[in-house]
User: Which sequence fits this backbone?
């Protein structure tokens, strides 16, 4: 007997249903409130109703849930302290898009060793999400696999569609149905139009292939996501975090009828993936912030220990605790300093806006 089916498939492993995993690791009522409230706060920052600065900060990728939680325990009190000026959302990224192969994140390969125990990855991810929420921190994720959001998105307050998938119809459709604001990165080559187009498509209701709560293949119909917005992350031609880049992107977004406030990623091609440079970029953004009204938020890649390390068969058992195995990150000490610098700049911008409003009211 010959067959034309699945000639290159070696295995199908059935996943637990999203509903059963959520039942195993449920969100408490307090955590549901936190997710709902923080999603609304992000939306209000994007619309300008909330004049604080959104800061999406945390490891490039989670490879060690204990170290990520350790990081969250340090971030949570700082986030609370700076909450008048910043809305801090922690990067808890489980899915990594790779340029030319490599480890694809904790959900895909929680053992970091090519064993790809995805069911364990989903459980580990969900447990960490609930632990981070328990500390009072809202969560940011990149969504990469079209079905994985069903397992984790209820815990997420800000989502990204990454540079490598911003042109993908599958990801744009997915964003149209996600319950939180979604940032579309500009393309790896620096192309802004792909992010604008992503926002346009995501704003509209879509019909596409997906999975329902029971994990059953389904046709998904969505309302559209009005909070889809642009994230500037630099490109092959260089960085794009300067005030003129932000103003240009904002004008382009406004013309296209999408959210015109912008998030800037201080990492990736805006800092040439150099964590030392990332702190300089964040400093420049802070300096310009009072005169950059269209800037809604900043993304930082940060972990406990500065820099990055290679994940290989040789290093797997002796990895440095709290250091990134993907992109280089700011260390905790520098992160704390940068967050305070951004809070001060955001405070100055808020005071300036209030002064202008008072002056207008007095006229
Ligand atoms: O943020 C992470 C990385 O920039 C992205 O996943 C690509 O990484 P790579 O170029 O090392 O594959
Ligand atoms: C992969 C990421 O970024 P980008 O899509 O901008 O490369 C990321 O933020 O982890």
Assistant:
């Amino acid at each position: 007997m010959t067959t034309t089916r699945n000639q290159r498939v070696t295995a199908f492993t059935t996943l637990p249903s999203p509903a059963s995993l959520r039942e195993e690791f449920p969100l408490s009522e307090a955590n549901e409130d936190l997710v709902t409230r923080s999603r609304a706060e992000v939306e209000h920052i994007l619309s300008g109703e909330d004049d604080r600065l959104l800061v999406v900060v945390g490891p490039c990728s989670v490879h060690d849930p204990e170290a990520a939680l350790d990081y969250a325990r340090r971030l949570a009190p700082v986030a609370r302290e700076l909450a008048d000026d910043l809305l801090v959302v922690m990067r808890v990224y489980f899915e990594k898009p790779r340029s030319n192969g490599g480890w694809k994140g904790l959900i895909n390969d929680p053992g970091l060793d090519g064993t790809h125990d995805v069911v364990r990855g989903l459980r580990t991810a969900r447990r960490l999400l609930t632990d981070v929420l328990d500390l009072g921190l809202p969560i940011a994720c990149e969504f990469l696999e079209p079905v994985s959001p069903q397992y984790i998105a209820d815990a997420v307050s800000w989502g990204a569609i990454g540079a490598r998938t911003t042109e993908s119809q599958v990801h744009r459709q997915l964003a149209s149905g996600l319950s939180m604001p979604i940032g579309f990165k500009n393309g790896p080559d620096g192309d802004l139009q792909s992010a604008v187009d992503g926002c346009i498509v995501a704003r509209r209701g879509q019909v596409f292939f997906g999975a329902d709560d029971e994990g059953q293949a389904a046709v998904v119909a969505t309302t559209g996501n009005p909070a889809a917005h642009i994230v500037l992350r630099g490109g092959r031609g260089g960085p794009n975090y300067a005030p003129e880049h932000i103003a240009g992107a904002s004008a382009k977004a406004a013309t296209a009828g999408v959210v015109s406030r912008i998030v800037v990623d201080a990492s990736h091609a805006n800092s040439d993936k150099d964590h030392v440079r990332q702190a300089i970029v964040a400093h420049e953004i802070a300096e310009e912030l009072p005169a950059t009204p269209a800037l809604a938020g900043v993304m930082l890649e940060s972990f406990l220990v500065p820099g990055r390390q290679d994940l290989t068969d040789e290093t797997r058992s002796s990895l440095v605790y709290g250091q990134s195995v993907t992109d280089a990150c700011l260390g905790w000490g520098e992160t704390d300093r940068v967050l305070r610098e951004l809070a001060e700049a955001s405070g100055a911008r808020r005071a300036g806006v209030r002064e202008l409003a008072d002056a207008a009211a007095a006229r």
In short: Residues 18-307 form a domain with the TIM Barrel fold (CATH 3.20.20.70).
